[in-house]
Amino acid sequence: MTLCLAIAAQTAEIAQAPAAHAGGSMPFLLVGLWVLLLSVFVGFEVIQKVPPTLHTPLMSGSNAISGITIVGSLYCVGNDYPLSAGILGILAIVCAMINVVGGFVVTDRMLGMFSAKGGKK
Amino acid sequence: MLALIDATNIVELAYMAASLLFILGILKLGKVKTSKQGNQWAAYGMALAIGATMLLLVTRGDWDPRDGEWTYQSHALAVGAMALGSAIGWWMAVKVPMTSMPEFVAFFNGLGGAASMFVALAEVPRAAERSHTLAFEGADFAIAVSLAVLIGAVTLTGSLVAYAKLAGKLNKSRIGPLGSQGVNAMLGLACIGLAVWGGFFAETATHLWISNGLLAFCSLLLGVGLTLPIGGADMPVAIALLNSYSGIAGMTTGFILKNNLLIVAGSLVGASGIILTQIMCKAMNRSLSNVLLGGMGEQAGGGGSKDEGYTKVKSTSGEELAAVLDAATSVIFVPGYGLAVAQAQHKVRELAGLLEKKGCQVRYAIHPVAGRMPGHMNILLAEADVPYEQLYELDRINDDFKNTDVVVVLGANDVCNPAATNDPKSPIAGMPVLTVWDARTVVVVKRSLASGYAGIRNELFQMDNSLMFLADAKKALEDTITELKAL
Q1: Are strands B330-335 and B441-446 parallel, antiparallel or unpaired?
Q2: CB-nearest partner of B104 from A32, A106, A118
Q3: Which residues from A are below 8 Å from B386, CB to CB?
Q4: How many CB atoms lie within 10 A of CB B132?
Q5: Which of B139, B250, B375 sits opposite A11 (nearest CB)?
Q6: Do B44 and B88 belong to one domain?
Q7: Torsion angles phi and psi, residue B334, rounded to 5
Q8: Rounded Cα gap, residues B123 and B198, in angstroms
């Protein structure tokens, strides 16, 4: 009960902060949820009929895309963030870049095997 | 229109373009002809996103070198960290042999989860600075931070366990108390409690760090506990699911940073992972929860090395197999994980080439869960230049086995176990299998009579029309090629 009250109180506190959503535009949460809804739908549609041959490249390619957190980790070394956050940010950058570069290069290598074969024909 | 010309808006437009490149990239990745281009487009999207973010941080003053010493060093460090990460990623990706692809995909995936976890934890000192709970930007913000820590951490350790299992460095389903469902449930509850404490009650720096640190710790343990019980043969499902998690973790960081690009990219990956997971589960005729609660293979002593009392097995050799193949007009190869382990893909291709020269029809039957990740066999055979027109999926080839002279099973087991169709009590009952026993002759190339990952006896080994060639797949194929050339 106290828990619910605490959460409710804090939500109300935020809702009253006028600067957050000046100009009467939608709060980010709602915008974000719209974007989420539509992209999940696009994701399902786009991926539905991929032939099994491409399951591995698709997985490793999309795995590389999940390294998009690199964008988030770059924010963490900005001025808004204190030193300790910057350190976490640096760690995040290294991890995310390994994921991104490793993922795309591995996928390219795999797909190279498919296309090399196509070329010979 | 003029209002759009402003660094923030230009960056937002660049993010939009990057999102589009991701979507189109994945779309193209799904078609054989355009897949390579699709991957490149997605990579361009990523480069654009990174470039735009750096532009934003510099123009907004976040990365202003005049703004104090730490920031000056921090963005130099950030660029250095990017270079370091890229170099490591590049080096690993170039160095990995194709056969270890499954474990490296899992490894990269884990790092994606780690990045999301770190990004979320970076919000903790910001809250501490303000002496406020994590809800300093709203309750949804606090929830997003906790979720990103939880999912990111589970992705990290889950993927590392998957990596260790795939690399053959770990085959336990328990480590101490970890791996039991009871402990997982307790860890899950602990995570919820810590998330509530850390998100809505902890206000001092100490409390914030303790609660969120413990949340990360428990989530890391949970990732291990959730992945340990999943059997080796179910790894394709686990990898697809963990891939999905890393996307979801990225998506939640999008809610933390109020960044649509992260939400789009994260949820695309999340959705694709879920679909792949579904496809894999369907291929095994098992529900996702059944796979996750797992333990099927491990409890039955998966990978045991006993002969398990097969009585009327007929052994064969390279000489006999060569003679059998020489007389055949149609041959189907059924590759499995054993082929990958033996690195025998080039030898199969060589043998197939010899047979084709003699006018024999050669095809390959690919079971959706053969190998250790979705599409594993396709990748392996592609490496050996096997034309993908010769690769047949289960439902396209099952009716053809009865008109086939010889089927050569190479290091596959459970995917062609008749128990799935004949024995309703079998743990794999109802799983669609390749009906290789319909062929005139089945030759099973296998290192021993041990059961596969599912730990189930395979009656195929002692059927009247089957011959066992007990050898490493590469060695067996080499022998056969030599004998065939000598004929």
Answers
A1: unpaired
A2: A106
A3: 117
A4: 16
A5: B139
A6: yes
A7: -120, 100
A8: 11
Alpha carbon distance B106, B237 (integer Å): 12
Q: Which of B67, B405, B414, B438 is catalytic?
A: B414
Average pLDDT over residues B383-393: 86
Residue A73 lies in a domain: yes
User: Taking a C-beta distance cutoff of 8 angstroms, is the pair B456, B428 a contact?
Assistant: yes
User: In chain A, which among 49-88 make CB contacts under 8 A with chain B?
Assistant: 49-86, 88
Domain annotation covers residue B311: no
In this structure, the answer to whether residues B122 and B243 fall within a common structural domain is yes
Q: Under a CB-based contact definition with an 8 Å cutoff, are residues B163 and B103 in contact? A: yes
CA distance B239 to B374: 8
Has residue B312 been placed in a domain? Answer: no
Together in a domain, B480 and B347 = yes
In a domain, A65, yes or no: yes
- Taking the CA of residue B337 and the nearest CA in chain A, the distance in Å comes to 15
Let me know whether B151 and B119 are in one domain: yes
Q: Which domain holds residue B146?
A: 2-299
Who has greater pLDDT, B168 or B64? Answer: B168
Judge contact between B248 and B178, C-beta under 8 A.
no
Cβ distance B38 to A105 less than 8 Å, yes or no, reads no
Most confident of the ranges B99-103, B261-265, B432-436: B261-265
Shortest distance between the Cα of A9 and any Cα of chain B, in A, equals 10
Q: Tell me, yes or no, whether B30 and B84 share the same domain.
A: yes
Final residue before a domain boundary, out of B232, B266, B299? B299
**Looking at CA atoms only, how far is residue B314 from chain A in angstroms?**
34
Of B60-64, B84-88, B151-155, B294-298, minimum mean pLDDT range: B294-298
B153 is written with which tokens?
């951490």
Which tokens is B260 given?
């649509």
Contact B39, A107 (CB under 8 A): yes
Q: Is B373 in Cβ contact with A56 (below 8 Å)?
A: yes
B61 band by pLDDT with thresholds 50, 70 and 90: low
Radius of gyration, alpha carbons of chain B: 26
Identify whether A99 is part of a domain: yes
CA distance B184 to B197: 20
Nearest CA in chain A to B115: A92
Q: Does A26 touch chain B (CB under 8 A)?
A: no
Structure tokens at A48: 């539905």
Q: Who among B201, B239, B250 is closest to A66 (CB)? A: B250
Q: Determine whether B140 is an active site residue.
A: no
Instruction: Let me know if residue B163 belongs to a domain.
Output: yes
Q: Is residue B162 part of a domain?
A: yes
Q: How far is Cα B286 from Cα A66, in angstroms, rounded to an integer?
A: 27
